Amino acid sequence: MEEKRVSMDRPIDNGSNIVQIRNLTVYYGRTLALDNISTAVNEGEFVVVMGPNGAGKTTLLKVIMGLVKPTKGYIRVFNFNPIEEGSKVRALVGYVPQRTSISLNIPLKVIDVVLLGVLVEKKPPRRITEDDLERAIRILKVVDMDKYWETPFHELSGGQQQRVLIARALIRDPKLLLLDEPLNGVDAKSQVEIISFLRKLTENGVSIIMVVHDVNMVVHIIDKIILLNKTIIAEGPPSEVLKEEILQKVYGHGVKVVRYCGICYSIIGDTHV
Q1: So what's the pLDDT on residue 39?
Q2: Over 80: is that where the pLDDT of 104 sits?
């Protein structure tokens, strides 16, 4: 039986939900990327999305940003339709893509990368003002990268590049931050520093949705896990989702969960979740 189509224009009572998704499906041509997704993110939540390669994690972030149009279903971000009201959504949402999506062949300096965060929303002719420059320096100071502002981006370490990309997303004071595997390829010291910084953001009221390949690094500070494999397999606090019988549905039987000091840690054969 064909699934009933859900109107993209159906009004909702937003309440504390800053993201609300109902019965959302995405196809790339004939390839199914997301299947009948329904979820919500509340104000101030730190949410992690995990799942195997090809599970639709990046697609979910792009749908929220309005970069991918759903085939069917309902989505609102701060009560705006991200496809029809994309500029309003992007004024409230910061997006940090995977570093692999950033071309290192373009000779951009650190300050140039951060300023791209304001340039993309400017109308032609796109000109950087003194206020833009001062704000970029202030944001770089927040992520402890201000002393590198004239350094070519490609010369930075993985952790430093990730800090710069986070600064680019923060330059317009987003209320929601989307991060696509921000800890991938980052050394352990930088991972700890980035996680500490993200925790401070949530304490200051910024909501976070983060795709991870290793949930153990952040399991002690997150509110909710969405276990995704094209559809939502499980959703809830780490203590409810990180169970062997649940994770095995996605990763097979090579999964172990260890509880230590009241926190669940997962050992998954697929190290690139």
Answers
A1: 97
A2: no
